[in-house]
Specification:
By secondary structure, the protein is of the alpha+beta class. It is 34% helix and 17% strand.
């Protein structure tokens, strides 16, 4: 069974207001278990006051967005596309795996409440399996790649150093496959992708692949977990 196609079908049904698609998942489609990893040996100090943004990709953006929406210090997490051109930044095009885009999440955070190092620790621990390059759970293709998009040299060095640290500590069975790419642009995904995990908690894909990530965040990063997620819809409603 092509689980990527199952997910696309579920999106169509959800977007049209139909009931969630029922489907039978195989063990291969199960969400990866979390990794217990050390924090970065060194962190990036905020250069100035105010909020910061960071873009990363780790498989389906529903789960990635959901994890960071439940992370203290994050003020906004937006699902979108990075790595390709603006004209191809739409789900139908990106889903073909030929646009250069990855499903990504732009994280806006307050460095006084949560550091970049903590966001990275969560990324490499509970968000996804960083030893998988172009596959996460049931989804495969370059649009699901493990990538950190950076626009700041200090941030890039921090990510590189942390990857080297984790590889050296051998906390995974395989070498980290996560790549680093320069951030050329981030394009928000369609409205029906935003807050998807919160809006569709009973959707089988979410139950099987993404809710375990939230539970792992709650267990492993209890001090950084918040019960009420910060939603894109809330930010839009306050404008």
């Amino acid at each position: 069974m092509d689980f990527s196609q199952v997910r696309r079908t579920a999106i169509t049904l959800a977007a049209g207001g139909a009931l969630a698609l029922a489907w039978f998942a195989s063990p291969l489609s199960a969400a990866e278990e979390a990794f217990i990893i050390p924090p970065p040996a060194t962190d990036v100090a905020a250069k100035s006051d105010g909020l910061k943004t960071f873009v990363l990709a780790g498989g389906c953006f529903w789960g990635v967005q959901g994890v960071y929406q439940h992370t203290k210090g994050v003020t906004k997490a937006v699902s979108g596309y990075a790595g390709g051109l603006e004209r191809t930044a739409n789900y139908n095009a990106v889903g073909r795996g030929t646009t250069g885009h990855a499903e990504a999440v732009q994280i806006t955070y307050d460095p006084k409440q949560v550091s970049l190092g903590k966001l990275l620790q969560i990324y490499f621990s509970v968000v996804h399996d960083p030893t998988q390059l172009n596959r996460q759970g049931p989804d495969s293709g370059t649009q699901y790649r493990s990538t950190v998009f950076t626009s700041d040299p200090d941030e890039r060095k921090a990510v590189e150093a942390y990857i080297a640290q984790l590889n050296g500590a051998k906390v995974y069975k395989k070498t980290i496959a996560t790549t680093l790419e320069p951030l050329q642009g981030f394009y928000a995904a369609e409205d029906y992708h935003q807050d998807y995990l919160t809006l569709h908690p009973n959707q089988p894909y979410i139950v099987f692949n993404d809710l375990p990530k939230i539970e792992n965040l709650k267990k492993i990063f209890a001090q950084d977990y918040r019960e009420k997620p910060v939603l894109v819809s809330d930010a839009q409603a306050s404008k």
